[in-house]
Amino acid sequence: MKPSIPKGTRDFGPVEMARRNYIFSTIRQVFALFGYSQIETPAMENLSTLMGKYGEEGDKLLFKILNSGDFLRGVDPAMLADADSVKLISKISEKGLRYDLTVPFARFVVQHRNELQMPFKRFQIQPVWRADRPQKGRYREFYQCDADVVGSDSLINEIELIQLIDEVFARLRIATIIKLNNRKVLSGIAELVGAPEKLIDITVAIDKIDKIGIEKVSEELLERGLSQEAISAIRPILEISGSTEERLAKLEEVLSGSETGLLGVKELREVVTGIESLGMRASVEIDVSLARGLNYYTGTIIEVKARDVAIGSITGGGRYDNLTGVFGMPGLSGVGISFGADRIYDVLNALDLYPADDAFATRVMFVNFGPAEAAASMKMLKALREAGISGEIYPDSAKMKKQMGRADALGIPFVAIVGETEMAQGKMTLKNMHTGEQSLLTPSEAIAAILGHS
Amino acid sequence: MKPSIPKGTRDFGPVEMARRNYIFSTIRQVFALFGYSQIETPAMENLSTLMGKYGEEGDKLLFKILNSGDFLRGVDPAMLADADSVKLISKISEKGLRYDLTVPFARFVVQHRNELQMPFKRFQIQPVWRADRPQKGRYREFYQCDADVVGSDSLINEIELIQLIDEVFARLRIATIIKLNNRKVLSGIAELVGAPEKLIDITVAIDKIDKIGIEKVSEELLERGLSQEAISAIRPILEISGSTEERLAKLEEVLSGSETGLLGVKELREVVTGIESLGMRASVEIDVSLARGLNYYTGTIIEVKARDVAIGSITGGGRYDNLTGVFGMPGLSGVGISFGADRIYDVLNALDLYPADDAFATRVMFVNFGPAEAAASMKMLKALREAGISGEIYPDSAKMKKQMGRADALGIPFVAIVGETEMAQGKMTLKNMHTGEQSLLTPSEAIAAILGHS
């Protein structure tokens, strides 16, 4: 009986945790730096909160929790005899695991509306669960790191969030391209070609341009019922290139017949001007093929890619105008971003960008030669800890080789040895595991030596 | 349709999160200081891992997750017709939410045995879920903060863990009593009165001594089938008092006929001597009525109470000799402790012991007078953030009163005002919200002023 974990889930050991904590704490610090406050919501939400928010497919991907106790009590026997899983669910399950942080956030805002100061700027870093088929890079449990501001439609929020993204990736030392678009530009395009009702079709097709190229996208648009004429009108937009200013100017020209489209370009321009005047380390690119989460975003759309690793988007976000409407609180505009921790983890691994030093790592291990030496060691260890040095003592007086082997295997940089000689002098022999050097030191000298090396 | 969350679960807003983070980060820092490494396990475990580990009652309190897809497919129609919830569970659910951190830790150790360096010292801070009836102070989702070391039976581990507990509560400024017992002492008592098979009965009764007193405990022991003679033999043990040394001496005397009992006293003495020679801020007390988690602990038993707040134990732990046996890896001794974050939260609230300053809190808000002033403000805000100061700008050029109201409501200590005059000079008017003082400052002067006040 070898124990295992559910497929699509993961254990994180000490090394992975140190790396994940580095990512999370970087993001958390920057969220706070930009004035976002943390909240947490329960892992379980009522199914009435979750169902119908992620489309039909999403409803199926929710993990549902069986009601406690005798969950079949009161269930109509005829319904049981039917053996219809979908119908039975509502009778035997009323809670599900959260699928993302956005719907719980919307629920939170409505539920606590009277306690919140608007605009409300919140961040949230918690796991979510999806009953997706597991595959490489896709898990059934993964963390999301979201920041949103609701209750303000000022574009300053977009500018701040893009600055925030830039700061996070500068700290993580990942070179990025931040792609920007605006839902109103996409609406303008649909309007322009006289097919506003085809907006979804157009954007779904456009979204694939990176993968399949312009010709295939044109074919798909034809299949989706657009006229050849409409496709010709769209084409120059897909071929837009040049500097940000050139792209904006071209868009303005092509969309001159659409009020909505022009508003989209104006917003894009304001955002780009704002961030560039503040100085960006990432490159910023207008990308009209960017259409993520379309049935959701109403203004700015943001997507971030790593320059040096071929991987999907590592952060995304945008503006939505009606987050809380579905919970009975209409007209609340918001904008938010979500960092993909797992992909960022992969990028840092691929580029070997983790800092050498983990602030939390054990810095020193005391060897154990028996009760008297251990007692003396523990006093010295206490002094080291009081100076903020993480350390341990080998709990058993095992063979020296075994004890040193532990320090080696765990990458502990210093070993302290307190034998009879050292005890007599109230000192320790401190061995630097990298250089092999060792010196006889008092506890305060050892503190200085260890801190000097960190 | 007012949205809500499942009963027994909680939302945590910004203020609660700051307080909870203070507790968690204090505990995490001390765990690391003592050489424990963090791990995380999935929220969902296979039911085969969880079932049967917490007793019959525990099995019922597990939250079970409905299999995805058509979960009724393949279920025998006769079984459905039976409508027997308990039998049906194994057919329609194979995963459950973790109930504590101990069983997942045991599973982790066995599953990763070949990658782990023994002794393995791990800490884990994650939520757990129990389908308990919610009541005051008892939730269906709550965090546990555990540290365990497995693969060593040295009492140095106990001494280190008790020091660790002492350090956590010293940092949190909570005065505590650390109560110690040893399962072998309890076994010795049962042996002594000739009723080793009554060990559970004896300890269950003894455990109530604080609540119901010696007389009632004696009555209960009689009801549980102990002879009057046996009860008389136990009585002096229950009445033990005096200093730690006096208590140990008395126990030694009473238990002189039991080898196991004497070993328990010897272990207790070694632990107490060890921690006292290192200096403790908590008071340490031998308490033979301490019997928590008895069907589990095999040696040292630890329980911590707050001195100044009447609340249950805020931390507990002990040694177990066979954590991983149930997963096919026998003979691995370990000792661990678990901090009760929710009760610690209540204690800090009751004693008003939270630090005034939250390192992550927003320190400054820029007022927004319109596009030009906002643009100038955002440049200054950027400089402040580069100096590590968390800040925001009011995103809309709302009425001054409304903007100041936000800073006030959120307790932001400084407001920066950049109007036309300030803009012309590249300065800001910085207002200290506590004193009402305001001064015209350059960004670097403002940084000094804000940092000087934090």
Could you write a compact summary of the structure shown?
2 copies of one chain form a homodimer. Chain A is α+β, with helices and mostly antiparallel strands and 454 residues long. Chain A is 44% helix and 18% strand.
Describe this structure in words.
The structure is a homodimer of 454-residue chains. Chain A is α+β, with helices and mostly antiparallel strands and 454 residues long. Helices cover 44% and strands 18% of the residues of chain A. Chain A is built from 18 helices and 16 strands. The first copy, chain A, has an eight-stranded mixed sheet with strand order 1-5-6-11-10-9-7-8. In chain A, a hairpin with a 5-residue loop joins strand 15 (428-432) and strand 16. Chain A is globular and about 90 Å long. In chain A, 46% of the residues are buried. The interface between A and B is large, with 111 and 111 residues.
Our count of helices of chain A gives: 18
**Radius of gyration of CA atoms of chain A, rounded to a whole number:** 28 Å
For the report, how would you describe the main beta sheet of chain A?
8 strands, mixed
Task: Report the principal-axis shape of chain A.
Answer: globular
**Could you name the ranges of chain A where pLDDT drops below 50 across 5 or more consecutive residues?**
none
Output mean pLDDT of chain A.
93
Report the end-to-end length of chain A measured between terminal Cα atoms: 44 Å
Strand order of the largest sheet of chain A: 1-5-6-11-10-9-7-8
Query: Which assembly state applies to the chains in this document?
Result: homodimer
Largest interface: A-B, 111 and 111 residues
Helix content percent band of chain A: 40-55%
Q: Tell me what portion of residues of chain A adopts beta-strand conformation.
A: 15-25%
Structural class, judged by helices and strands of chain A? alpha+beta
What's the count of strands of chain A?
A: 16
